[in-house]
Design a protein that fits this description.
Strand order of the largest sheet: 1-2
Distance between the termini: 21 Å
Helix content: 55-70%
């Protein structure tokens, strides 16, 4: 089972097209998440991911709810 961290989730769900490195990481995250392999996400990772969406990327509560 593969454990996902906050960065993988952020790169998968948040497409920061202004950042070329982030776009490349998005492709890698997508390949991993959509691979069909068993995946695991810890509660603390979800909490941190929510903070990144709201705090750094200024997602609204509705946007965060949609992602979850």
């Amino acid at each position: 089972m593969i454990g996902l961290d906050t960065n993988i989730l952020a790169r998968y769900y948040i497409q920061d097209k202004a950042d070329i490195k982030a776009e490349k990481q998005h492709k890698s995250a997508r390949k991993l998440i959509e691979s069909g392999e068993p995946l695991m996400v810890c509660k603390t990772v979800l909490l941190e991911f929510e903070w990144v969406m709201r705090g750094y990327y200024q997602f609204t509560s509705s946007d965060v709810s949609h992602v979850f």
